[in-house]
Design a protein that fits this description.
Largest sheet: 4 strands, parallel
Number of strands: 6
Order of helices and strands: EHHEHHHHHEEHHHHHEHE
Strand content: 5-15%
Shape: elongated
Number of helices: 13
Structural class: alpha/beta
């Protein structure tokens, strides 16, 4: 019997992508007798990829134009928001793949007036498909592979709000001022915290440096509080530190997770 714990990148591939990544994720799951999706992965999924799909939906609703939405994405690509841009493009690609594959203009004419502006038709059709993807993926959290593994008592897990035509995904995080419900479990394992911290020592990047600082704080100052922002910074280390013994971590983020997993004798599985 093998157990697989699902990291956010693979969860996203499985639920939102339509470029073959979803099939590769499913192939990983099929190799294991038990698949676990941590509640933390669902939290990250909503805060990151799902929120960015929401942006694409809301921009299409705002502009009512496929071409103007693409222009907005092109403009945003020159900003620091590269991840938002990339995921919003993925949202449009996935929706397009589901919506227009094998669909003729005659089929669209059955839904939309034959004299309608095609730019408006495409925007509305894509928006509705992205909306369907957002709701279906988030609503699956209570049943997919038996529901969330390691529920987070500090996280307000609520449904997506349809404000017609906009969607809202807040709250995306634990309430400000709360202490992470994971903290006591983590501070009780100082040797594991040290091993994971040493595995990323010297690695470049602001995100890695921030993660190392949080690991050190948990190890050296166990009585300090752990804020929601610090929990977010823990990020990838969560999947390593809460991976059940003998389980493997399914991830596409090999560069960041593999060294930490190796420090605790854990294996990863990647598409």
């Amino acid at each position: 019997m093998t157990v697989c714990i699902v990291e956010t990148t693979v969860l996203t591939d499985f639920l939102l992508k339509k470029d073959g990544s979803e099939n590769k994720a499913a192939a990983i799951f099929s190799k294991h007798s038990d698949v676990l999706v941590p509640h933390f992965a669902w939290k990250e999924f909503k805060r990151g990829p799902l929120s960015n799909f929401r942006w694409a939906h809301n921009k299409l609703a705002e502009t009512r134009s496929f071409s103007r939405t693409i222009a907005a994405l092109q403009s945003m690509s020159r900003s620091p928001h590269r991840y938002l841009t990339s995921t919003a493009i993925q949202a449009i690609h996935s929706a397009y793949t589901l919506l227009f594959k094998g669909v003729s203009l005659a089929d669209l004419a059955k839904t939309y007036d034959s004299q309608a502006d095609m730019d408006v038709v495409q925007a509305d059709a894509l928006r509705l498909m992205i909306k369907k993807m957002i709701f279906s993926s988030w609503n699956s959290r209570s049943t997919l592979f038996g529901g969330p593994f390691l529920k987070l008592s500090c996280y307000p897990d609520v449904d997506i709000e349809d404000k017609k035509p906009r969607l809202e995904v807040d709250p995306r995080d634990c309430p400000r001022g709360t202490t992470c419900c994971l903290k006591n479990d983590l501070t009780g394992r100082p040797s594991d915290l040290l091993a994971v911290r040493r595995s990323i020592a010297g690695n470049p990047g602001v995100e890695t440096s921030r993660r190392a600082n949080i690991l050190r704080q948990l190890e050296k100052h166990p009585n300090n509080s752990m804020t929601p922002s610090e929990c977010r910074s823990l990020g990838d280390a969560y999947f390593v530190l809460f991976c059940p013994p003998g389980a493997v971590i399914a991830t596409t983020n090999v560069k960041d997770i593999k060294p930490m997993a190796a420090a605790l004798g854990l294996a990863i599985d990647t598409p």
